[in-house]
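Late entry, evening session. Most of the bench is empty. Finally got around to the prediction I had been postponing all week. Sequence below, unchanged from the version circulated by S.P.
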Amino acid sequence: MAHVITDDCIACGTCIDDCPIGAISEGDIYKIDPEVCTDCGTCADACPSEAIREA
């Protein structure tokens, strides 16, 4: 199951830089494409606002 980004996202870009497969897109609140996400957890580990969790 893919990870999701909650409303706690501060759109800092850290997760995009760390995602090894490019599953995250920019926006006011970033989004993870569940069709691309491999559930590796790299983004959640990198997120400074703890806005990324398992779906």
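Two things to note before I forget:
The helical segments are 14-18, 42-46.
The CA atoms of residues 44 and 52 lie 5 Å apart.
Will write this up properly tomorrow.
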